[in-house]
Amino acid sequence: MAKLSPSLLASDFSHLADQVALIEEGEAGFVHMDIMDGQFVPNITFGGPVVKSLVGKTKLPFDIHLMIEHPEHRIPDFATPQTEYIVVHQEACTHLDRVIHQIKELGCKAGVALNPATPVSTLECILGEVDMVLIMSVNPGFGGQKFIPYTVLKICELDEIRKNEDLDFLIEVDGGVTLDNAAMLVESGADILVAGSAVFGAKDVPARCREFHEIIK
Ligand code: DX5
Ligand code: ZN
User: Which atom of ligand 1 is nearest to the CA of 199?
Assistant: First the structure.
């Protein structure tokens, strides 16, 4: 069954622990945290201290999406006891192999994200080393954008590669995910759906998580 990873980017930042409790009540698989530095992407969100403040406030594992330049300088800040995945952008890593192993040495699973215009082929050499590939289905930096349809082809391509090469990385999709496209994304090969506004924009957040689960089970 595919899992839901609601993004806190669309939540009420003044009540973060309460917002996380809502998605835990809705039985989300992870809590997705978008870290933006104002360089790799235009916005700034939050950093290590905020992530650490949520440790122990929920049972949900953390899914940390680093949209930052030079992630190698900051990765230790995010390797909390509750962090399952740390995801870096291929476009931000000159030494991607080194960064992937840095994450693993800190006891976390390592993911790599691709912007919409970055081809899957850029990961050809590293796919055997990563635990997850995150396909950005919008240009990173903002919540509430429209899903870019051609990114589905990249999910299908990755799914095909992992079957053919007997690899076991998970595929995550992030950006513009809604109740309307969730089933199609899972059918295409996605294992984890990130949804920000489609979850936290709902009046009843736990009920919205359950609606997603009905579709992606
Ligand atoms: C965008 C972030 C996403 C964002 C998705 O740069 O990586 O995680 O929160 O938001 P929605 O689901 O609203 O597109
Ligand atoms: Zn994200």
Answer: 12
